[in-house]
Amino acid sequence: MKNKMEVEAAQPVENKEAQNVKEETCEAGGLAENKSSDTVVESVRKTDEKETAPAEESDVYAYTRREEFTSENFKIELRGLPRYFHVGQLKKLLNETLDLNAHKVKPAGKAKCWAYITFRDEAGRGKALAALQGYKWKNCVLKVSKAKPVEDPLIKIREEKETAKNKDDPNSNLPITERVLKSVIPYASLPYEEQLEKKQKDALQVLRKYGSELAHVNPGLAKFISFQKMRRKGQVCEVDDIVPSPVINHYRNKCEFTIGVNPDNGLPTVGFRIASYKEGSMHVAPVSHMCHLPEQMIMVVKEFETFVRDSGLAPFSPLTHEGYWRQLNVRTTQNKDILIIPMIHPQDMNEEQLLGLKNKIVTHFTTGPGEPLGITSIYFKAYGQKEKGSEPVLECLWGQEYITEKILGKNFRVSPDAFLQINTAAAEVLYEKIGSLAELDDKSILLDICCGTGTIGISLADRCQKVYGVEIIEKAADDARQNAKENGFENVAVFTGKAEENMPFLMQHCTKSNTVGVVDPPRAGLNNSVVLSLRRCETMKRLVFVSCDPSNAIRNFISLARPQSKQYKGEIFIPIRAIPVDLFPHTPHFELVILFERWDELRWKHIMEGNPLPQDEEYFKRLPDKPNFTGNDSEKIKRASQEQEDDTRKKMKPE
Fold first, then answer.
1. Which residue out of 6, 23, 500, 591 is catalytically annotated?
2. Residue 10 pLDDT
3. Catalytic residue of the set 428, 501, 548, 655
4. Which of 77, 273, 569, 591 has the maximal Cβ count within 10 Å?
5. Can 591 be counted among the known catalytic residues?
6. Residue 580 pLDDT exceeds 80
7. Pairing assessment for the beta strands 338-344 and 377-382 based on DSSP bridges
8. What are 358-382's pLDDT values in tens digits?
């Protein structure tokens, strides 16, 4: 699985960690058999009353007094730190040098000389208070004191929203079905052409910002950047028109549905939150009217909603931490696979009760009312409070252990929690664009970094000599190896582990000049150590970067082009061409594919002088003949552009 937070269609998810609280809806010896949906509704009503009680609403620290763990109860404020310090170094001081076992470390902000640190118990906090008071670190004398817990964001924002209700929020009086549309698929009311225009503008804005930052970070590229911007309306590279999705409606193959309460009828509902927990919302809206969901998925959601209402168990409340049902994940494929993952908070349920619930789910969807849906896999996850470094167990209750999908004529096995582009038809278009930018041939070596289940590398494996994939998640790497084998590719090798740790070994095998890299990282982008490794791979002349969050990935784009130094070794990468691809109709999101190439000063000198080398003639033909600058860059860049134009004209003038 790619550790990628997919560009979900603004699907809100829980922001607050779940924690154990007793809920009296289970009876000794097993699940209550005689609890009707009316009982659940009554339980939900009581829970909802707790959630909206004035005392609870006004107490932003109520969560710290529950019978459950929160590290916010054991928090300190550490002052006197150097103005610029590295969090990693502070953690090393706390946990290695002083052996304090800090739970979390959070700096107060950039260039701030204090930080907040939490511990797992009062003994840990007391030890830290004694050890850190007056401690000298980096020529600074530290001061320490106890700190208040952070305020509960839901209650705080609820109060703010209540005050401003009907004034600043034009959507507050809309029906919940319309509010969820605006939250999840805000572009659904727009013609598709208008959606594409908006995304094209967003892509251009991101690239313009990138070009401006790049000119500041690497002044040595000033002439290149000004040359590009003068001819490309302020853009730092060639930008294609956005590529539309082949399908506009019913395209999602995966969704994470929250199980909560519909405020309109007070019933347990499987759907989407109208906003996130931090935005002050816990209410859930139905989804049957949402055009980006396939009908098959909507039918599964409706049937599971019926099961929840008949189960005798209330939905989990992130405010009171009572209740059981958390979430339902559904995955579908073009091969007619349907995989479901119900998730619950077990509260005080014992193993016998959990087993009874699992058996009921399996029976309902294999031989009961849910059988006609044709579900092929049923998984189950139960978790209370998540602990750092541990993941809840994902248990296969029934059916296939994975789903299968066909992309560009190749078959792929995908584990239940592995990453796969959520729009299969558009993913095929995306991979074709990646292949065209990579310019592979039978002598090429392709490095597929963050390869996940291998979809990109395997899709392009028949165009190159060798594919090396690197994936940190072991299960996903296993899927990638199996997928290569099932598709008959012997030229695909997949390595498990961090990209930066595998790169030195891979570089030994990438001795040919036509090594091409492809990175499709998580939403947060690449770790900078991976960027440094890519720059050190000298035989890699081209790099295709796929980003589902271009604004966030700018830092990676900048790192690829920072001037060489002790840290940034290897020649820089410069942007050549960008292609926006729409994988997410009805939302503001899109994928941005950027081709980077190694900087070649002589080559670009020829291009900017109007005398391109043979291999660059096709690129040169696509350049506008005359400058068409319309951007808002600084006078400095404009002057540099004019100087470059004058210099070019002088050199092209016949003797």
1. 591
2. 37
3. 548
4. 591
5. yes
6. yes
7. parallel
8. 999 999 999 999 999 999 999 999 9
